[in-house]
Structures are given as C-alpha cells and as structure tokens.
Amino acid sequence: MRKLSYKDLVIPNNIFPKVKSSKNVSPCETFIGQENAFKAINFGLSMEKKGYNIFVVGPSGTGRRSFVESFVHSFAKKKEKQEDLAYLVDLENPYSAKAVLLPAGLGKNLREKLEKASEELILKLQRTFESDEYEEKRKEIESEYKEAKESILKELSKKALKLGFVVKLTPTGIVYVPALDGKPLTQEQYENLSEELKNMYEESSKKVEHLISGVIHQLRKLDAEYAEKFNDLDKYAILFAVEPLFEELKSEFSFSDKLLEYFQQIKDHIIKNSSKLKNFEEAKVYLKHILTVNLIVDNSETEGAPVVFETNPTYPNLFGKVEYVSKMGVSYTDFTMIRGGAIHRANGGYLILNAEDILRNPYVWDKLKKTLLTEKIIIENLDSVYGINPTITLKPEPVDISLKVILIGTPDLYYLLYEYDEDFQKLFKVKVEFDWEIDASLENVKQYFSFISNVVETNNLKPLTSKALKKVVWYSMRLAENREKLSMKMGKIANLIMEADYYSNLRESDMIDAIDIEKAIREHENRMKLFRDKYDESLKKYEIMVETSGEQVGQINGLTVIHLGDFTFGHPVKITAKTYAGNVGIIDIQRESDLSGNIHSKAVLTLIGYLGSKYSREIPFSLGVSISFEQVYGVVEGDSASLAETLAIISAISKIPIKQSIAVTGSINQHGQVQPIGGVNEKIEGFYRLCKYRGLDGTHGVVIPEANIRNLVLNKDIMMDIKNGKFNIWTVKTVDEAIEILMGKPAGKMTARGTYPKGTVNYYVEQELKKTYEKLNGKTDKKKKK
Fold it and tell me: Which residues have a Cβ under 8 Å from the Cβ of 453 and sit 6 or more positions away?
C-alpha cells in the first residue's frame, strides 16, 4: 500500500533521445517494431509450396495494410514479370473462348498487330477484288460459263425442234411450245389440229420433257462447276491478300504453338468464308470481330510480379464475369465481353484482400477456396454457377493460376476461420501477427521519432519541436494504456500530427509545438464527448447521486467505464450494501434482475468465496446481504468493481463508515489479492472531474490495484493537482490494505488463535456475524421448547 507521488507518474526522461526537433531525425524507411511480422511475411512470400498463403493478424489501425502493401511491393519487384492473358475467338465452339498467355507486354503488341492486320486485310481485299486482273479473270470464267450454257440450250432447242417443239428459257425455268414449220403454235391453232397430229405432239412432248430434265441436270452441274471456279478465284485472291500478313504474324509469335494454331484457323476461316468479304462493310465487321484480342491482363507496365489490392472483392470484381448487351430484347454476348477479375491480374504475383470484406460478399469465400485448391480460375457468372439462370452462356477456357493470397483481418476473424473452416488450415499456413504495442525503450522511441519525421515529410507538415515529440510519445502511451509501451496504432498518431499542424497554422507558427499537440488531442475529444458531458452534468446536478465528502456505512464510490466505439470515458457509480438477519447469504441485485454479465456474476461469486473463507471458518455466514449498483439500469459487466463491492459489504456488516471522498476500482481473487483492471485512466479522470467541480480539498482520490501503476498515463490537469497535493492515488495489493485507506482503521491480521485483534475492522465483522448467528440460534431453540 502506498500513495503515489507526482514523480511516480511522470514519463522518465531517459527514454527520450536528445533532439531539438524532428528536423534532426531521419525519416524511417521501414515499419518499426514489427520484427516478428517481417520474418513471418518474408517466410510466407518466399515459400513457393502450395497452401502457404498468408493471414496477417492484428487490430485495426496498426498499419497492417500499409505494412503488407509496402513489404509485398518491395518483394515483388525482385521477381520476374508475369505473362499477359488474352481471350481469342474460338471458331470451333461459339460458346467458348480461347485463353492465351503471352510474355509481359506482348498481349498489347498482339492486339495492335491484329487490329492493324484487320485494316490491312480490308484494303488488300478491296484492291484485289477491284483489280483489272481479277475482273478479267472473272469475265473469262463468266464468258466460258455463258458459252457452255448457251451450247447446252442450243443443243436442246435443236433436238426439241426435230420433235416439233420450240424451247424457251424463262426466269421460272425452261418451257416448250408445239411448233409447225419452226413457228410456235397458238392455242387456237393447236386446237384446230387433227387428232392424229395432237397425238403425235403428245407423244413427242414426253421426249422433250425427258430432254429438258437432262438439260436441267446439266445446267445444275454446270452452275456448280463454275460456282466452284468463281469460289476458287475468290479463294486464291483472298489467299494472295492474307498469306503474307499471317506468315508475318506466325514468324513474330512463333514461340506460341497456340497462337500459330490460331493464326492458321483464322486464315482458313477467312478463305472458307470468302462470300462474306465481297461486301466490304460486312467484311469490316467480320474481320474486326474474329481478329479482336480481348486483353484481360496487361503486365507491360508492371515492375516485377504483380501486386493487386482489391478493395471491393465482390464475386465479379475478384473472379471476372461475362457481360451481356441487349439487342431487340434479346441478351447477347461473345468473347469480347469477357472481363477479368483481380485474381487474373494478380496471377503469378500477390493478391491482398481484407478478410472481413471477403466474408461479407456472398459466395466469394467459397469460390476463392475452390480456386486455390484447384489452382484454376474459371470465369463464370454467379447465376450460372449456382443454377439460378439456366440460360446457355459463354464458357471461357479455364486458366492455370499460381499466386499468393494475403488476407488481412482481426484475431477474432482468424480464429473463427481456423476453428470452423477445415480448408482454411490447408490454404493459409502462414500467420503473421501484427503487434499493437512495443516497449518504450530508448531505441524504440528513436524509431518512433523517425516514424514521426516520415509522417511530416510525406504529408508536407511543419517539423515538431522536442516538447511536441515528447507529447506525441505521451499520447502513444495513452493509447497503449501503459507507460512502458508505445502504441502501434500509427494511423491515430499520423492523424494527431496532421491535426496539430492545422492548429500550428492558426498560430502562424513555423513549428508544431506541444501546445498544438495538446490542442489537437483536446479538440478531438471535444468532438466526441457529448455523452460524457451529459453524464457529468447529471452528476453535478445530483441526478446521479454520488457523494464526494463525508462518510457512509455500506456505501462506496465505484468506478466504471463506458465504451462508445470511438470514445471511452469513466464515471463514478454509487455501490451500496445492506444487511439483515437471515441465512440467505449475499444477494447481488444486478444478478437477480438479469442486469449482470457473466464476468460480473463470476466476480460476485468470487467475493462470496473470499468473505466466507475469511469470516465464516467456524460459524455459518448467518446474515442476509444485498448489494446493488445504484441508478444503473443497464447490464453491469466485468470484475473491476469486486473490490468496491467487498468493501461495501464489510462496511455494512461492521457498521464502520467508508470515506466518500475516495473512489475504488480493482478486482479480487478468493485470497483477497487485488488484481489489475482495464480503463484505469478513464476511471480516475471520471471521478476527478466530479471532485474538481465540487472542490478539491486534498482528501479526494482513488484506490487502484498496485499492478496498474504502469498503466497510469494521466492528463495534464490531474497531474498538476496530484503534484500540488489536491488529489491522491493510492495503490493496494490486498483487500485489507484498501480497508485501512477507506475506513481509517487497521484491518487486523489474524492471530495464532485464529481471531482478529480488538478494534480492527475484521474483528468487528467477525463479532457482528457471531452475534447474528447466536440470535438466530436462540430463536430457533425457543421455538423447539414450545
């Protein structure tokens, strides 16, 4: 038990390097205080085996993302450039698309070459089909065809005429008419013929029909023959136009068997579909389509292996998609509407993802696991994968992947996945633990100053004075809740410096001084302290009834902390204990009314064990005690009030009053030892604000566990009042030490006979319990006699 002095609470000067300002400090080139994280992530990135993906674990705001991005980018620069990925038309299967991997930069080159080839082909085809040579050759074939056709028809006319018929070629086919002396007969003339002649014509007509049938067959054969000749002419003309272009492409991309096969297929397809090339507008569309390169991944500008941080990892953003356009109310797609995802861009390199975002987006985690297990990425829309939409769609060729996935998340998320997802352990074998604090040693403070200098340089801020640097370190310790540690919540440190720079600008100062740091801290607090002000106002108006003077039996000031997410503050609460005759033992009103959390309920059971072992060794605890947090209407959680509750019960039993000018925090175990608690700074400052409002007289103060001394990082106002003796902080190791401070009497140490010395608090407790037990037993004995 001891009363802390001002010197016990100040930060020792020997941890601060001697610098005049941040100008004299070189900016850090790397992250500080994360040696184990450096080793772990370097191992994970260097391990090329399957399943050695990385999960970076650490609290938010500690610079996890910046650390990972910086380290991975630096590591990736030493690696080789990765291949480009393109999708090409699949002429054999219209519902597919061919995937082609190319050395970095050649994907863009291929796309440009084929775009140029498409334009050149149109020009060459146009010149070819409009050339005199082509026209002469075509006319020659047309003349041959015409002559052959006329010869067949002339022979038919000659034979038909011998049979008494004239043959005519019409748009609807070949017709024949009876003739006399080589002249066609009219219908009237034919009707006036004798029956004998009519019968003769009737017989001859069958022969003519037979002749015509044969001629039609000949003409069809002739048409096919010359159509083939025309087609061959077009093919040779097209071949003449395309052959040099495709030979050039084959020569340039000879390293890829897949591209050589593709060029041959395209050339054959163009020649085979020569009819589409006669209409130059149609030919432009056709050639542009089949020669399009859908470049999914372009690594031409990438230095080393690719590093991709996907901030919005939805299913399509991560794994790609097939887009559609609507034409006349019908959805249409082709290989040019295939879109790659982050996993395609990161192939051969590193993909960084926020673990919480992955789990928040439907189906993404499941697909990511399948992709890593199969080492293949398949572009397919979500509705197709899960059978929501049975429409036939494009199925691009799968691509082999080899990449390292780095997830960033909280410890809770890591352990949740580790416990409940068996695939997680197979796929993420490297855990990188990101520390949230480091020791406040001279060397680490030097590194901290280097980080501050880096923030100043990066954000073009004013330099910090020596006092300002020390104040930043104080704030870091406050964040860490420990004078022996520095917080690694570097985002908050950087924000503080930038806000302090703003306030130094208002002062028109050339440097950021301690007053600017203090102003930034104070103003940040002012922007979020509305709820604290409302609580303080209720305390000041005595709407929340807490005494800060005098003495009361069975009443003590406890200290609680309220967490609001972005702001935490402490305030005092009245804890009361009342005793009455009976064997019901200790009743926790919070617990009975379902306003007690599990940890608080455990703490109450612990103090019951302590009190029972200390005061009921020979006689039962024959007293009813009720304990309550007055004017607390929410759930009470935590064990930090168990010391105060124990003292209130001891006061209620012994009838010895407790000083109301002192507040208490601390948890106890069953041996009566006082254990450390959290939020000690906020708790002390909460009681201090109320006491200062009512007037400090030197009697006010708080009792805290001795183990919490290192956690004291108090604000400037309270430190000055402690220095001037207006406010006090006592530390205790046991319940008995706290009794002596709050009740002003010795607690009393058990003698060899198992009793406590007269006049001590423990003696009065034991005597009161003994009296009550005897009274209860006396009443019971009288009832039995009656």
Answer: 22, 25, 26, 27, 28
